[in-house]
Design goal:
- Helices cover 79% and strands 0% of the residues.
- The relative contact order is 0.23.
- The chain contains 13 helices and no strands.
- The chain is globular.
- It has 284 residues and is mainly alpha-helical.
- The two termini are 18 Å apart.
- The C terminus is likely disordered.
Amino acid sequence: MFKSISFLLIAMASIQSGATLAKRIFRIAGPAGTSALRLFFATLILWCVFRPWRTKISKKDLGSLAFYGLSLGLMNLLFYFALERIPLGIAVALEFTGPLAVAIFSSKKSLDYIWAITAGLGIYFLMPTSSATEHLDVLGIVFAVGAGAFWALYILFGKKAAGNIPGHVASSWGMLFAAIVVIPFGLASSGTTLFDPSLLPVALAVGIFSSALPYTLEMFALKNIPTATFGVLMSLEPAIASFAGFIFLKEKLTLMQIVAISCIMLSSLGSSLTAVKPIEPPLE
């Protein structure tokens, strides 16, 4: 359990650092183009490193991987559209409604509900005040919530895919399907700009830190912790995102956001301490 939680923490720090890099090239490639580059390089890296074609995949498992990849791709695409319009910390907080819903509906213990409610309280505090709401882009909020819905599906389909095949193989196939879904949007939006050599180094870094590394770690973690625990642990995302936004994008935290982050961290700690025995993964 400790190893799986460590994987998740590293994955979340990596993905939010990558998001700050991605936001820096929106003005050149746009959110759809940046998402396409991210998934293209992530897929290339995973397939070169893990060579998933060597593992036999059944038609049933391939279907699960396709839905996993579809959820992953649309989650990334909508999140980048949101990130273009609203701050990183708020975008991630709104996106968290997806895994929070998974945590609540899959819970079997009363304490799990308490931690989910605590996390929900933190999300409530992360919402802008009535005066700040006027300065937030409404479409950005819609995109973030939509990304949260696909994040919930990503957790469910990812759990199913990881239960039957090795985690690194599932990550590689899922990333390929995600790239297939998103790249057409990127080409339609940005065209030949995606082939600008100046974008490639940053796009490669985004692919590594935002996709290849974190999603591989998450797939391994998904095999060893319950869905509810995974969902509530992911509540650390708004805290890490707010910190990354402060360090790399100069997005300052308000007192209310600090209170919210404290609530979310408490819920994650409580969930990890009261988690049930993880499901035994199949032999790889």
